[in-house]
Amino acid sequence: MVGNAKSTMLKANMSSKRLSLDDCRKPSMKMINAFSLDTSPLSADACALAEREIRETPEQVQKSLAELRELLKEKNTMSYKDTDEYLMIFLRPTHFYAQSAYDLMKRLATFKDKHEKIVANALPRESKKLFTENSIVNVLVDRDQKNRRVLILSMGSAWDPKKLSSEEFFRVLYMVQIASLVEEETQVRGAVIIIDFHGLSTKQVMAMSPSFAMTLLLYIQEAMPLRMKEVHIVRQPFLFNMVWPMFKQFVGDKLKKRLFFHGTKMSSLHKHLDVNMLPEDYGGKKPKLNYSSADWYPVMHDLQSYIADWNSYGLKK
User: Fold this and answer.
1) Looking at residue 43, what DSSP letter applies?
2) Strand 191-196 relative to strand 149-154, pairing
3) In terms of C-beta distances under 8 Å and separation of at least 24 residues, what long-range contacts does 266-274 make, across chains too?
4) Residue 152 near residue 192, CB atoms below 8 Å
5) What average pLDDT does the segment 252-276 reach?
6) Are 158 and 203 in contact (CB under 8 A)?
7) Fewest CB atoms within 10 A around its CB: which of 17, 105, 165, 208?
């Protein structure tokens, strides 16, 4: 990690008490070799980047927090957590423009209301099998050369839609994204997604309906409070041409500029992601992936109360 900040594990809390972000930062006695969250404060490099890219200075932070609180109080249409740490999650991806942060909160609340069946009660404990019996959503242990989190979506032969429906796929991705927000470093630096279509067959194509494509892309582009820096499509076979038109119609101009297609040419991927930070699976110099979502499920489990807390915010009924 940047600086000498030591990665810590999150403390498990299975009581009815809901965790704040500070609670999540308390170190756990359990250590997971494969994966852990970096819950340390922002590194000096990240602070400098935040000031340069998203206007994050002490003065601007206080001004924007006050303006956002006033907007939320004035509109009074949402139930939310009125803490600095929670509101910062929405201010960072919107460059500390209070109105934009409010609009993002409103879009997320509307999304959660519209897709209540999928995300309303998304909790790691209730979804344990989705994490431990599938290897569809994975997070690299190593960050990339810009210290961004790298998420792997395996949407080819690794995905059996009979075992994991498209709605369940999205639910897992949704919870992983919420977990990433615990990391201030990730709030500032953002994340990168690699979508791997190796072994894509007709059963996956059939599972990727226009409804699934619209839900996924609407969330990523409109409602996700995370800086999505790049999306890389790799190892897509010819059959991918049947899938892409469904997704393409929902891709906005901003995402188009951050979307890259590489096929099997990993040298193309390496123009964006340093070969020294990638696993052998993608032509990198790191060892071949030997861990999956089952290995880092305990981290998600420790965030049970935090995610439950997150689920409680949204439009006022």
Assistant:
1) P
2) parallel
3) 266/234, 269/194, 269/232, 269/234, 272/192, 272/230, 272/232, 273/144, 273/145, 273/150, 273/192, 273/194, 273/232, 274/144, 274/145
4) no
5) 97
6) no
7) 17
The number of residues in the chain equals 317
Structure tokens that stand for 283 in this block: 């032509």
Dist CA 39 CA 7 (whole Å): 7
Higher pLDDT, 17 or 315: 315
DSSP per position, 166-229: HHHHHHHHHHHHHHHTT-HHHHHH-EEEEEE-TT--HHHHHH--HHHHHHHHHIIIII--S-EE
Q: Is the pLDDT of residue 29 over 60?
A: no
**Distance between CA atoms of residues 170 and 172, nearest Å:** 5
Full DSSP string of 114-145: HTHHHHTT--TTTTHHHHHS--SEEE-SS--T
- CA dist., res. 169 & res. 163, Å (int): 10
Token pair for 176:
């992983």
List the Cα angle 167/192/117 in 5-degree steps.
15
- Residue carrying structure tokens 């409602």: 223
**Segment 240-261, tens digit of pLDDT:** 998 999 899 999 999 999 999 9
d(CA 215, CA 111) in angstroms, rounded, equals: 9
C-beta of residue 189 within 8 angstroms of C-beta of residue 46: yes
